[in-house]
Backbone:
C-alpha cells in the first residue's frame, strides 16, 4: 500500500469531487456515517472556498479547538481514498464525543486496509504536533472502525450509551517515543 496524507492542492480538485460525490451518494442511499464531517461542510466545486473551510485553524469560538484536515492519497492509483481531521487538543465536548481524530474511508475503498494505514499516518501527525495520548471514538456497531483503532494500539476505556440507544466506544492510544 503506497499512501500518504496530503493537504489539498488544485491538482486534487477532481479527485476530491469524485470522492465527495461518491460518499454523499452512499450517505443518502444507505444512511452511512459522514466522518470526518469537516470534509462535507462546503462544496468541493468551489475549490477556493473549500480549501479555506478546511484550512488548519486556531480556535475562534470557545466551543472549537485548533484542527488540521488531511486527505489520504493512494499514490499508485492517484485516488483519494479517505480523510482525517485531527483536533490538536480536547475540550469537554470532544472528550465525550469526537476525540482527537475523525476519520473515514470512501465507500468503494472500504475493507481494503486503508483505514488502519491512514490512522497510523494520522497518529504520526498527532505526535508531530505534540499529542502524546490520542482519543478515538467510534460507534459500537462500526466493527471495522474499532478494528482499525485496535490495530493501531487503541485500548478500550469505556462505552457511552446515549438517550437514543446508540453506543460509542472510547479508545486511547499512547504515542511512544521511538
Residues:
Amino acid at each position: 500500500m503506497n499512501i500518504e496524507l496530503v493537504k489539498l492542492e488544485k491538482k486534487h480538485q477532481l479527485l476530491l469531487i469524485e470522492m465527495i460525490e461518491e460518499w454523499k451518494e452512499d450517505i443518502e442511499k444507505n444512511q452511512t456515517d459522514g466522518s470526518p464531517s469537516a470534509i462535507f461542510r462546503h462544496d468541493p466545486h468551489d475549490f477556493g472556498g473549500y480549501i479555506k473551510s478546511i484550512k488548519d485553524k486556531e480556535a475562534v469560538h470557545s466551543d472549537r479547538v485548533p484542527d488540521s484536515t488531511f486527505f489520504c492519497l493512494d499514490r499508485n492509483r492517484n485516488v483519494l481514498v479517505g480523510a482525517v481531521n485531527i483536533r490538536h487538543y480536547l475540550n469537554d465536548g470532544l472528550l465525550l464525543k469526537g476525540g482527537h481524530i475523525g476519520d473515514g474511508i470512501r465507500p468503494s475503498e472500504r475493507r481494503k486496509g486503508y483505514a488502519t494505514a491512514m490512522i497510523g499516518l494520522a497518529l504520526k501527525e498527532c505526535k508531530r504536533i505534540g499529542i502524546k495520548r490520542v482519543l478515538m471514538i467510534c460507534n459500537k456497531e462500526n466493527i471495522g472502525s474499532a478494528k482499525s483503532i485496535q490495530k493501531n494500539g487503541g485500548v478500550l476505556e469505556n462505552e457511552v450509551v446515549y438517550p437514543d440507544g446508540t453506543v460509542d466506544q472510547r479508545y486511547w492510544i499512547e504515542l511512544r517515543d521511538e
User: Anything to note?
Assistant: The first strand starts at residue 3 and ends at 6.
